[in-house]
């Protein structure tokens, strides 16, 4: 049984070996063809492009939890088998650091962090939409310290508007090199990813309520960020990008926390183990098919297609992991 630990629980050397493995995936050649995917320049980008490819199916839908569970597992396998990492996937325990992200071992900008805040960008604006205004964060420019200070992101940026999207919008898979953008946002983290919200998730009586606290779909008129969105809006522009967000190395740790809470919630009651809701299309339009345990999911070049039932517990099939 492998154990996925919280970032701060890992020894400094273990953290560095993880970030070194991420940097290694950024140097390895991609499996996707660059002719068709000009922005895919590395093995790391294979994961980003795969996420872009399936974004319109695997968010705000019934595929969200199961698809990302397998995506994380494929990522963990890649850092281990292709880059020699011997640990397991770490997670970001949101409430521990929600009041002061810059002091967290994840984002303090040290060599043992995932890099910290970006340089101050006076042009960063607050974000308004769906009845909520998110004040700007404290950075807004490039991350300039820690392991990812020199990394380049290659894909995106995508527009924040989801209005009636039926195909992958511009810029698709174009090559657009930029730095890792960070803007730590304690306002988002402390309001929307605190202890109370994690307790609400764990106390959700059914999967509908669980997904509601996670993502607030359908969006509530008063404008509330689900804890999933809160993680994405806590760190800056790179992680906010619904399509290309796996370019921020914090993505996998944020989603590991989502997977952790889901797994613990599933384990708390037998009726929850195979609970699913929603469809296979973003925001669950009325014409989309409801997902079932037999709905088949895909990960492109990363994996074979799999029915949802294969991923409904961290202790079945190829899985054998748990979270601290
Ligand atoms: Cu995603």
UniProtKB/TrEMBL annotation:
Classify the source by domain of life: Eukaryota
Has UniProt tagged this entry with the keyword Metal-binding? Answer: yes
Q: Does the keyword Endoplasmic reticulum apply?
A: no
Give the matching Pfam families.
Tyrosinase (PF00264)
Show the segment(s) annotated as Disordered.
110-134
Domain called Tyrosinase copper-binding: residue spans: 59-76, 248-259
- What InterPro entries would the database entry show? Di-copper_centre_dom_sf (IPR008922), Tyrosinase/Hemocyanin (IPR050316), Tyrosinase_Cu-bd (IPR002227)
The name of this protein is: Tyrosinase copper-binding domain-containing protein
